[in-house]
Amino acid sequence: MDLKKIVKKITDFIRTNVEKANATGAVLGLSGGVDSSLTAFLSVQALGSENVLGILLPENSITMEDDVEDALRIVKKLGIDHKIVEISGIIDVFAYNIPNYNHNARVCNGNLKARTRMCILYYYANLLNRLVIGTCNRTEILLGYGTKYGDAGADMLPLGDLYKTQVKELAAYIEVPEQIIQKTPSAGLWVGQTDEKDFGISYELVDAILKKRIDEGKRYIEIKKELGLSSETIKRILKRIEENKHKREAAPIPKVWFN
Length: 259
Hints:
Layout: H1 3-20, E1 26-29, H2 34-47, E2 52-56, H3 65-78, E3 81-84, H4 88-97, H5 106-128, E4 131-132, H6 138-143, H7 164-173, H8 178-181, H9 195-199, H10 203-215, H11 220-227, H12 231-243
Parallel strand pairs: 1-2, 1-4, 2-3
Helix pairs in contact: 1-2, 2-7
């Protein structure tokens, strides 16, 4: 990868989209992970530190203290304004007011948390006439590993054409702290959750499958032969791509005006 060229393309992309919207800057969520940290670095390069607001959205008893500390480290390093909004009280209100709320519905509740965070980001974006910059990467987008109208809800996705392994490479180039780059990726929606545990394989292998299928157009049998992975593993990843196609597309609209 020509990392210098990629940085320029992404920073130009961020700046152009903010200018087109006549917005005054950007708002983004900071989790303490590599995706949000890299996005913050690129946003500051594009817009200036005074025009970027970082929002930390921890949840008591779920969010790791190290993640909050890493997010604050990015805030300090970049010199950006920030706010901390602890979301457990908001989630408790939802739980109290939603009939038949199921505390054991882990995925549903996790999605609710992601959408709550999205609402808070957009509140500040609307308040300040700014755009919400999302932090999803290409791996997550292709696999549907994100919440529709949650963490996938944003005005732009600067990392959307980079696989997770490429994100880490670019983060190292732009000097995101190494401890953040090497941290175990997690959406942080429940205790013990990690991305790779959800996938059943490492990001390196996920990206290898995606590159061969999406970029090179290889068939299943070719991928299996070249990577030496089990049929079950490859089929599981390819199935996720197809099943989550709806997350990558706008809501369908019926054609009612026709001859």
